[in-house]
Amino acid sequence: MAGDGSPVEKLRNLLRDLKPEARAQLMAELERGMLRGQEMPGAELVIRELREGLRAANRKTETDRVGNPARLFFAPIEPFVIDEAVDQHYQARIPRAHLEPIWAWIGRDLMKAETDAYVNDVSPLLASGDTAKAEQAAKTFQDLVVRRFQETMTKISGDDKARRRFAAQVGTPRGLDDAAEVIAILRMRDALAAVAARLPARIANLSDDQLDAVKALIDQAAGRQQQFFGYALVLVMSRLVAPWQLIRLATKAVESDLASRIAGSPYAAAVTIVLGEVDRFIRQLKSDLKRGQMAEIALLLKDIHDAARGLRTEINLALDSPWARQLAAARAEIADVLKSNIESMPARVRRLLRPRPTKEIAAGSVLNADEVAETEALIEFVGTCRNYAGELAINEMTMRTYTELQNYLESHGNSLVDALRGAGASDRSFRQSQMDAAVRFCGKVFGADYAATLAKAAGVAAQSDRKAAAAKA
Predict the structure, then answer these.
(1) Cβ neighbours of 92 (radius 10 Å)
(2) What is the dihedral of CA 367, 373, 379, 383, to 10 degrees?
(3) What digits encode the pLDDT tens for the residues 214-235?
(4) How many CB atoms are closer than 10 A to CB 381?
(5) CB 461 within 8 A of CB 418
(6) Choosing a second label site near 422 at 20 to 30 A (CA), which of 10, 336, 396, 406?
């Protein structure tokens, strides 16, 4: 099943060779194109790969702080790590920020002497480039940590006070759970690695024969280990171009789309994991909106939209089921997150383009270029929201806002042209900057032809204004 040498793998290698600044520039251009609605086959895949490259670079920086022996110890954990610093638990996931406290706990409280010995043994091996011996030493130490943790948990199983003290020693918000998550992955390390090795590098569409093959692979590796399914499913999801398609394994497992039947299967974890991804997407959406990164949000909105649609259309969710309630809550939260940005857009346009008497305009002034660019990006953002409005529960909001913007631009275009035609020396530059902004905004809303027509009318007005000024002179 592995996909070595595939076109996708060749593309990944090509993108990996790009310099960081080239990656950032390419990603920005592709995202802007998607916001403009341009047809760009394969753009989503390229953007995902570019983002993964940036995340990998950030992960390397973070794990370097822990130290090479620790990074080697946590290598089997890496596929299940999320970069967000969150207290909420996501199945088969662990926040990266929790790794350093767990490493400190192992070396301080669980097995100090053995940890010191491991670090002393592995450090020179890594320094000399003997990775094979270093990896074997790491595996031996991992197995020892698993045994010591399990022995300790057995000793304190009936002592709530000891368990609370043990959890506090771990030093993460969910001390025992986080430690148990790491231990579970280490315990299933080899089986998970075998699954990862047999999965394709990228799965464009999880269906038909490939769906059967992936399910058979997981079933064979899992055996009777119920806990294994969640981690194996996360590995599969990391290879999916459309992560939401993970739920197809759940419907395939029971040969039904009924949520009640899926819930009784080990593959129910697929639905839980996808819903967790939607929650993570929403958290990232909030962060991007706070930073004003409108151009980076297009792909994120598409991911949320596709996941919500997939959950709703491929699974028969009873209205009172926990999954249905969770999805409804997510859609409501998305609408709440997007509301202020969507509804503020027409007011920002009106503030920039409103007719102003000459006495209010400082001589030689122009509109703030950054504010114009931010408003243009916001218009693009609302246009993107329109594409996904139905699944994101923002249909009425986006339609109302966009109609308001369209009506305003249509009704005020001529007044801006007239104001430019009648401008004097002191206010001409400001009127021209308003006209230029209106052309840009109309290009986003009505298309290039409409914007070109408006720009031509503005050019004629400006020319007649200059002729009139010359005649007076």
Answers:
(1) 23
(2) 160
(3) 999 999 999 888 899 999 999 9
(4) 22
(5) yes
(6) 406
